[in-house]
Amino acid sequence: MGADLFRSFVRAGLPGPRLRVDVSVSGDPSFAGHDWLAESVRSLLPRMTELGLATASEQDVDTLAGRIRADVTGRLGIVSLAPVIGAWTRLPAGPRAP
Question: For the whole model, what pTM was predicted?
């Protein structure tokens, strides 16, 4: 939906919104992103298995966050989560419909 926010606002009769993209990025071992990534894999695992892309034993989701954390911090790397797009606008001043 993020990429369609501008169009959605305008089609709804609102002024074109201001948009912002935020991305959480960190290399710190305490970054919650390691857990978020592992839980994302956990939520997708049934579909991944159904499509034959991976099995639960291959992914070992219960240890995945720790493995991601160890790999990233061991390389002094970073983890970048998915971007989140926000939009907002203001209605023009003037009479408002009841």
Answer: 0.73
Residue 96 lies in a domain: no
Mind listing the pLDDT tens digit for each residue in 4-57? Answer: 999 999 999 999 999 999 999 999 999 999 999 999 999 999 999 999 998 888
**Residue numbers of the domain that contains 68:** 27-88
Rounded (5°) CA angle 18-22-28: 165
Token pair 């408002």 in the structure block, residue: 96
Looking at the 3D structure of the chain, how many domains does it have? 1
SS3 per residue for 39-70: HHHHHHHHHHHHCCCCCHHHHCHHHHHHHHHH
Nearest of 24, 19, 25 to residue 86 by alpha carbon: 19
